[in-house]
């Protein structure tokens, strides 16, 4: 990350406006309730604005990010890779904006996808706008792929402190969503898809959506504290 590249990102307000723009909506997206790609995209700009207005940090979280930001070599900037079709991004990015504001951190948001949704692997860094996507890809179980959301916390001089990817450890996403999507007692694939989509939609409107967002904030704060206390680990 360089100062010039960071400056090319969007503020949260700019990102919300962008998500509702004709150019963004014309891109391919995904609807988890239907388990299918969609074009045009759903317009989530109003939801993101409302969620940001309603996002609340606890007094302890506010005090923690302010303390961290005040330390020598503390967090000063955060780069976020996001696609609003992702329920993980809709969950966490408004909270990340609240965290950045509370700590006086400069936040910039970058998109992951081009015209089509990226389904697997890591893009060529030379591909337009894909340098950050490739640099901050997810790595798990011996595989590497472009994931969202990604939030990379830097010092004022762009030394990386911590990288948050996709969802907090307390949200066992694959197990939870896998259970909801699985066919039950005699269900046809079509019936299972419809029922699973409705149950996932209800889950994303439940209090647990914010429980997981709060878990992400706690995980980030704890990791930043550990990095400042102990230093980089292997």
> How many individual β-strands?
8
The fraction of residues assigned to DSSP E strands is 5-15%
Element string (H = helix, E = strand): HHHEEHHEHEHEEEEHHH
Largest sheet: 4 strands, mixed
Number of helices: 10
Provide the spatial order of strands within the biggest beta sheet: 4-3-7-8
Rg over CA atoms: 18 Å
Q: What class do helices, strands and sheet pairing give? A: alpha+beta
Cα(first) to Cα(last) distance is: 21 Å
User: How much helix is in the residues?
Assistant: 40-55%
Low-confidence stretches: none
Give the rounded overall mean pLDDT: 95
Shape: globular
What does it look like?
- The protein has 234 residues and is α+β, with helices and mostly antiparallel strands.
- The chain contains ten helices and eight strands.
- The protein has helices at 3-7, 12-19, 22-25, 45-54, 59-70, 87-103, 131-135, 173-181, 189-204, 208-230, and strands at 29-31, 36-38, 77-82, 106-111, 138-140, 143-145, 150-154, 160-165.
- It has a four-stranded mixed beta sheet with strand order 4-3-7-8, covered by helices on one side. Strands 1-2 form a two-stranded antiparallel sheet.
- A hairpin with a 2-residue loop joins strand 5 and strand 6 (143-145).
- 32% of the residues are buried.
- The mean pLDDT is 95.
């Amino acid at each position: 990350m360089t100062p010039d590249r960071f400056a090319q990102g969007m503020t949260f307000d700019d990102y919300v406006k962008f998500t509702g723009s004709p150019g963004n909506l014309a891109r391919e997206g995904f609807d988890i309730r239907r388990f299918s790609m969609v074009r045009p995209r759903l317009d989530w700009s109003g939801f993101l604005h409302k969620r940001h207005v309603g996002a609340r940090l606890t007094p302890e979280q506010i005090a923690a990010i302010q303390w961290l930001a005040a330390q020598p070599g503390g967090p000063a900037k955060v780069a976020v890779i996001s696609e609003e079709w992702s329920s993980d991004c809709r969950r966490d990015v408004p909270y990340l904006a609240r965290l950045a504001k509370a700590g006086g951190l400069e936040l910039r948001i970058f998109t992951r996808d081009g015209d089509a949704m990226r389904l697997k692997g890591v893009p060529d860094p030379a591909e337009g706008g894909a340098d950050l996507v490739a640099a901050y890809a997810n790595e798990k179980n011996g595989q590497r792929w472009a994931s969202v959301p990604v939030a990379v916390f830097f010092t004022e001089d762009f030394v990386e402190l911590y990288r948050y990817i996709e969802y907090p450890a307390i949200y066992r996403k694959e197990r939870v969503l896998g259970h909801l999507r699985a066919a039950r007692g005699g269900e046809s694939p079509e019936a299972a898809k419809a029922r699973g989509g409705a149950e996932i939609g209800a889950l994303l409107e439940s209090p647990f959506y914010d429980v997981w967002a709060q878990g992400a904030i706690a995980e980030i704060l704890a990791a930043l504290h550990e990095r400042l206390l102990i230093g980089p680990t292997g």
